[in-house]
Amino acid sequence: MSMDSKGNPGKNTLLMSILRNISKQKQTRVLTIQFEKLATRFGVDESEVLTLFNQMKNDAYRQTFLSTPYRNRIILFPQCLRHPDCEAKSDKWGHHCVDCGRCGISRIKKLADGLGYAKVFIIRGGSIIVEIFEKFRPKAVIGIACDKEIFLGNLVTEKYDVVSQGVILTKEGCYNTEVNWKQVEKCIRSINPSTDKESTEKEADAQQ
Ligand code: SF4
Predict the structure, then answer these.
(1) Cα of 34 from ligand 1 centre, angstroms
(2) How far, in Å, from the CA of 127 to the mean position of ligand 1?
(3) How many structural domains does the chain have?
């Protein structure tokens, strides 16, 4: 536990501990109000509370995620990560990358396909996630999004018992956004070596 100079728990440690308690609350509105109160009490920005909450969820799910074979995982990219001149085709599930190479999605999608991921989506918004979960029944999901969307997505994943890992955008804004692609790649590759033979063999192939 991190302490301040007087030996008391640091601000973030205290916040994490309170967030851990309120995270059992499933109602978005109630959670949001509690976040607002916490932000005021600790004199921090609400986005900082959201970031800590999302970090806490990542930590809580990490081991189960690492033990989930690639074939049971999906990836959700936000449409705003695409290049403005994206040539992807679209349908109800979102956009389908045609490998134009103008943004990083193409390379990551090829990596995920090679590893055996069940599906990679480029979604227009969070409302399609429920339909994706119901149709494709993933056991784990990697969501790339802003803090707010990851927070909302986490509520859906809990409802459907899907394990999640969120990668936060480094530049938000709904258009021409950015992410740390190395962090995305690391998350996609990450797996517990004892998970299953097929997944670890694919990881080894992808390293070559
Ligand atoms: S690489 Fe794919 S998602 Fe990115 S801009 Fe090109 S077609 Fe669109």
Answers:
(1) 38
(2) 22
(3) 1
Q: What share of the chain is helix, strand, coil (3-state, %, to 5)?
A: 50, 15, 30
| Residue-wise pLDDT tens digits, 15-55 | 777 777 777 666 666 677 777 787 788 887 888 888 888 98
Q: Which of 75, 100, 144, 178 to mutate to test the pocket of ligand 1 (most atoms within 8 A of CB)?
A: 100
User: Is there a domain that residue 32 lies in?
Assistant: no
84-130 per-position pLDDT tens digit: 999 999 999 999 999 999 999 999 999 999 999 999 999 999 999 99
Tell me if 166 sits within 8 A of 58, measured CB to CB: yes
pTM of the model: 0.86
| Contact partners, residue 103, CB within 8 Å, separation at least 6 | 81, 82, 83, 86
**Better pLDDT: 194 or 197:** 194
| Domain residue limits at 119 | 68-207
Most ligand 1 atoms within 8 A of CB, residue of 80, 86, 108, 144 to mutate: 86
